Amino acid sequence: RRKMKPKYFILSLSLTMSLTLAYELMYDDTYYESILKNERLFNGLLECLLSDDVCSNPVFQQLKDLSPEIIETICGKCTEKQKMNFKNSTVKFKKDRPVDYDHVLTKYDPENKFRGPLEDFLNS
């Protein structure tokens, strides 16, 4: 049985920890309400989420990359603060822009596997 060299183990552990930390810090510090209130920012985020291209805004790109997982797990890896931000911003998005909300869900959940549980979460 081959053993992992200590330096590779430390590198692997550091990378895993930094990715987890970056995920948590980024979404705790993102002001979802301010994005929803700023039409230019929100339209940029929406364009990013619906596009098949890479987004020019790195924060929006990270949200885009994580959207399938967030929708599938209903923010399962989120902190409590992140879940509250996700819930509040999604409820507002759905209320204010229902057509765009449906477009995003259709893109990230084309088979409607997760819409029911997501709606239950949003209504809880």
Please describe what this structure looks like.
The chain has a single domain (6-123), classed as Insect odorant-binding protein A10/Ejaculatory bulb-specific protein 3 (Antennal chemosensory protein a6, Orthogonal Bundle). The protein has 124 residues and is mainly alpha-helical. The radius of gyration is 17 Å and the shape is globular. The protein is built from seven helices and no strands.
Number of discrete domains: 1
The CATH homologous superfamily name equals Insect odorant-binding protein A10/Ejaculatory bulb-specific protein 3
The end-to-end distance, rounded to whole angstroms, is 50 Å
Radius of gyration in whole Å, from Cα? Answer: 17 Å
Shape: globular
Low-confidence stretches: 4-23
From N to C, what is the helix and strand string? HHHHHHH
Q: Which whole number gives the mean pLDDT? A: 77
How much helix, percentage-wise, in residues?
over 70%
CATH architecture: Orthogonal Bundle
Which class of secondary structure composition applies to the elements?
Answer: mainly alpha
Largest sheet: none
* Individual helix count: 7
CATH fold field value: Antennal chemosensory protein a6
Q: Which strand-content bin applies to the residues?
A: under 5%
CATH class group? Mainly Alpha
How many distinct beta strands?
A: 0
Protein name: Odorant-binding protein A10
Keywords: Signal
Pfam families: OS-D
Signal peptide: 1-22
